[in-house]
Specification:
alpha+beta, GMP Synthetase, Chain A, domain 3, single chain, three-stranded mixed sheet, globular, 3 strands, 4 helices
Amino acid sequence: MSVTGRLREKLMIGLKPIRLDIINESELHAGHRNSPGTGESHFRILIVSEAFAGKSRVDRHRLVNDLLKDELAGGVHALALATVAPGEALPKASASHT
């Protein structure tokens, strides 16, 4: 299974999101010093989940990082996270991707 597939599967099971956007941005980092060159190392993720309700931004990111700890330890170099509870405003860059 691809890295993108593993990320999607773990986040769907762990957070039961009502929206999950995973964008592979690895090509934007090709050739950078710390880029592993795998084509699946840099991701931008938007997650809308009830699991984030009442949690701070730090707690939300910890929850995601814990779910993805194996991927973060073995190949995923960077995650840009937008973690939103239902009813909260989407980040401006993500709002147009609906």
